[in-house]
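Need C-alpha cells for this chain, all 281 residues.
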Amino acid sequence: MKKIFVSLSVIIILLFSCISSITAETITLYTSVPQNIIDNIKKDFESRNPDINLEIYRSGTNKVLAKLTAEKDAGNIKADVIWVADFSVYENLKEDNLLRPYQAPEAKYLPKEYYDSEGYYYGARLINMVLGYNTRFLRGNNIPDSWFDLLDPRFKNKVGSSSPDRSGAFFVTTGAFATTPGLGWEYFEKFAKQNPASDSNTGIAKKIATGELLMGFVLDYKIRKMKQKGSPIDFVWPKEGAVMVPSPIGIISTTDNFEASKRFVNYSISREGQHEFAQNG
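Here are the C-alpha cells for all 281 residues:
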C-alpha cells in the first residue's frame, strides 16, 4: 500500500509538471543587453513568473534591427518585446507602427524623460559612456580627466572606441558629441587622426586592460566588472560630462502574447528588475 501511495504521488507531481509546462506562455525578446546580464534577468523573471518562458535573441543593436526588419518584410515578426540602447530606434519603430503602447504601473517611479508619455517604450536600463584608462601605465598627473585627453598626440595609436554601426551606445554617444558645443563633429575628425582602434565596447575595454591601448571610450559597467576581477583598468567622469545612455524596452505591435509581454516590461522597470540589474551590471 505504501509503494502504491508513493507511486501515485510521483505520478501526480509529474502530471502537474506536464500541465505547468503545457500552459506556460512563451515570449520572445530581441535585445542587445549583454548575454550574461540578460541570462540572469531571464532566470529571475521566470522564477517570479513561472507561467512565462522568456526566449532570447541577443546580438548588437544593428543586427537586432536587421533581423526585425527582415522579419517585418517577410510578414513574420517573431519578437514580442525589443530592448536595445537607443531612443531614436524606438521613435522610428513607433512611427512605423511597430510598437504597441502599454501604460506600465511601475513607470510612475521613472523620471518622465526616460519613457514615452504614450507608453510605447520605457528606459529600463541606464549605462554610461565614460573615459577608461590603464592604471598600470597612466598614474598621477597622467590620469586623464577630459575627453580631449584622447586627442593628445602622445597617445596616437593608443586610444580606441566602438563605432555607431556596431554599438547603439556609441551611436548615442556620437550624437551627443555632435550636438554639444565645444565638442561637435569636429571632435571626431580630430579623434580619427589619432588612428584609434575600433572594436566592440567589450573589446576596447579588454585592449585597455592589456595595455594595447592606454585609454578610450568605454561603458562604465564593463570597467567595473573587470576592475573587480583585478584588471589594471579604471575610468573617470570627464569634466565635460559622461554620456548617459538609457536603454529602452517596448512591446512589438504584432505580438500574440500581449499580457505576458506587459508583465516582462513592467518587471524590467520594477524595483525587483532594477535590483537584478544592479547586481549584474
